[in-house]
Amino acid sequence: MNEQRKAILDMLAAGSITADEAERLLTAIEPGEAPASGSTERPKAKAKYLRFVVGYTENGEPGRVNIRVPIALLRAGVRLSALVPAQALEKANAEIAKSGVPFDLTQLKPDELEEFVNHLDEVIVEVDSPDAQVRIYSE
Amino acid sequence: MPHLVTLRVKRPGHRTIRLWIPVLLVVIVLSPILLLALIGGVIACLIFDMKVIPTYAGLWRVIAALPGSHFDYEQGRFGLLMTIR
Questions:
Q1: Burial tier of B75 (Cβ tally within 10 Å: 0-12, 13-18, 19+)
Q2: Which residues are listed as membrane-spanning (chain B) (predicted)?
Q3: Lower CB density within 10 Å: C or N end of chain A?
């Protein structure tokens, strides 16, 4: 690394590269700020997909559902939901309430939903029962 | 934007059906109907007091985010697989 730095500085001194180019080259060869602990662990890559895997047994036959949803699709859906007019949400609330679920969709703010989607990276849900297994995770 | 939809249907006692559907080709073939649907959508937006351009932009974002979706269902010897690329 030191040799690379020295070579760049030599080129700068010789006038074969400009100060800006030298700065860019130096930045390129530097690995960034070293972690304080000195560990070489890489930062976790951002999850791109949300995976739903359900395994179950019905009438003695095994069944399996495997769904992969791009997180970008969830994000786009959240943004689209922000455009739903208030009167439509009120009608949906009334229908949900009829089913016995007092849920107010107007209280779901797009910003909060987007925050929720942003934190899906860390989601792992596992349900195990004798007849079925459900696993939800990001990848 | 999605460019290929793959569909596989497995049924007991039947041959497995595999379909590769090029999205662009389907869009071109169905373009007259899609045009009418777009116009209908604009009218619906105006009736329901929704902003037309942000609504279409949001719909486009949803369509553009579809690649990578995968749906796989198996029950015994029946199976359905759909992937969007």
A1: middle
A2: 20-48
A3: N
Residue A107: both structure tokens together: 């209280």
B50/A73 Cβ within 8 A? no
How far is A15 from A6, CA to CA, in rounded Å?
14
Please name the helix (run of DSSP H) or strand (run of DSSP E) that holds residue A132, with its range, or none. Answer: strand A132-138
Model ipTM value: 0.85
Yes or no: say if B82 and B2 are a contact pair by the CB < 8 Å rule: no
Domain tally, chain B: 1
Task: Work out the angle at residue B63's Cα, subtended by the Cα atoms of residues B80 and B56, and round it to the nearest 5 degrees.
Answer: 145
Domain that holds residue B20: 4-84
Q: What average pLDDT does range B57-81 have in this prediction?
A: 93
Q: Report chain B residues whose CB lies below 8 A from the CB of A73.
A: 62, 65-66, 69
CA distances from A122 to A26, A54, A109, A117 (A): 35, 19, 21, 10
Is the pLDDT higher at B57 or at A117? B57
Q: From the list B49, B62, B72, which residue is nearest A66 (CB)?
A: B72
Q: Do residues A52 and A65 touch, judged by C-beta distance below 8 A?
A: yes
- Å between B33 CA and nearest CA of chain A: 23
